[in-house]
Design brief:
heterodimer; A: 115 residues; mainly beta; 6-stranded mixed β-sheet; 5-stranded antiparallel β-sheet; 11 strands; 0% helix; globular; B: 116 residues; 7-stranded mixed β-sheet; 4-stranded antiparallel β-sheet
Chain lengths: 115, 116
């Protein structure tokens, strides 16, 4: 079964600092991996996804994530945090091989940005 | 493109009443839609998978008679919370998968349900 673990329920960084949100997955074969962002009282917006091409995936708003099979990780990074990045971030996984298989979400990491 | 809407965005109802939430894919056809619920400061939990024209597949522990799902067209799925109770108060989010797509779901903005 697929699962994802997000390390750290809350991360706080200063504006302009590096953002690093950690995600590790568990899967017998490399799955599809996603990062979503959720602003208060809103739905989820896809930041980026890994399907099987380049291991370094670039997303929207300057975010990127690197798929590392040896570490079973898919950490999300952004070189310079902006106040508007404050939100809840979810790592998610979906198994390959079935177009209708469900997405499993991590527990989420709340990102706060200090002025 | 790929916009999903939900209606209403929030609803308050009395205990024992039923509430219907609509999920629409505005500019694409969605053969599969998903319904999630999210409790405060928690992750999304999949409730059911809905395929157009067929019965929904519910996750373990989700009461199908309480959470009625209808997916009558390629652009509309509805979730009806029957005989709602305060413990059903939650944020309900739907997502839709493009027909033929393999991995991307597009999420609606969510519906905040409060049962008094």
């Amino acid at each position: 079964a697929q699962s994802v673990t997000q390390l750290g329920s809350h991360v706080s960084v200063s504006e302009g600092a590096l953002v690093l949100l950690r995600c590790n997955y568990s899967s017998s074969v490399p799955p599809y991996l996603f990062w979503y962002v959720q602003y208060p009282n809103q739905g989820l917006q896809l930041l980026l996804k890994y399907t099987s091409a380049a291991t370094l995936v670039k997303g929207i708003n300057g975010f990127e994530a690197e798929f590392k099979k040896s570490e079973t990780s898919f950490h999300l990074t952004k070189p310079s945090a902006h106040m508007s990045d404050a939100a809840e971030y979810f790592c998610a996984v979906r198994a390959r091989g079935s177009s209708a298989s469900k997405i499993i979400f991590g527990s989420g990491t709340r990102l706060s940005i200090r002025p | 493109g790929a916009v999903v809407s939900q209606h209403p965005s929030w609803v308050i109802c009395k205990s024992g009443t039923s509430v219907k939430i609509e999920c629409r894919s505005l500019d694409f056809q969605a053969t599969t839609m998903f319904w999630y619920r999210q409790f405060p400061k928690q992750s999304l939990m999949l409730m059911a998978t809905s395929n157009e024209g067929s019965k929904a597949t519910y996750e373990q522990g989700v009461e199908k008679d309480k959470f009625l799902i209808n997916h009558a067209s390629l652009t509309l799925s509805t979730l009806t919370v029957t005989s709602a109770h305060p413990e059903d108060s939650s944020f309900y989010i739907c997502s839709a998968k493009l027909a033929g797509a393999t991995d991307t779901q597009y999420f609606g903005p969510g519906t905040r349900l409060t049962v008094l």
